[in-house]
Amino acid sequence: MNQELVNQIDKDNDGELEDDERSIVLAPRDKFDSAIIGYENKRVVYSEEAIIQIYMKEDGMTLEEAIDFYEFNTKCAYMGKYNPIYKSENYEEELWN
Fold it and tell me: pTM value?
């Protein structure tokens, strides 16, 4: 986890902002903050591979279950104006081999 990114996200979303002006972060934070790889224009950037690995490790899902759950419940979910961005980091190389 990049603590500087997490601190910047928290700083930018602290205070009197309306809910629709806050960056969307995956909850629970202690579970998904480790998957943060960037922060662009108030949008948190997550690693797809890290999220899938979290589902497998923390929730006991198989790889197939984790991918299906991620794609349907996380990636496709519209949560608001500052919806997270999901980026693949060497998807084929790291996850499948």
Answer: 0.87
Cα(77)–Cα(90) distance, rounded to whole angstroms? 23
Cα torsion through 40, 37, 8, 78, rounded to 10: 60
The counts of H helices and E strands in the chain are 5, 3
Q: Coil, strand or helix: which one is 39?
A: strand
Handedness of CA 60, 63, 65, 68 (dihedral sign): positive
Strands 36-40 and 43-47, sheet pairing: antiparallel
Q: Record the tokens describing residue 90, joined without a space.
A: 């060497």
- Render pLDDT for 28-50 as a digit per residue (tens, 0 to 9): 999 999 999 999 999 999 999 99
Region of 80 please: left (phi>0), alpha (psi -120 to 50) or beta: left
Distance CA 1, CA 87 (A): 15
- pLDDT tens track for 49-62: 999 999 999 999 99
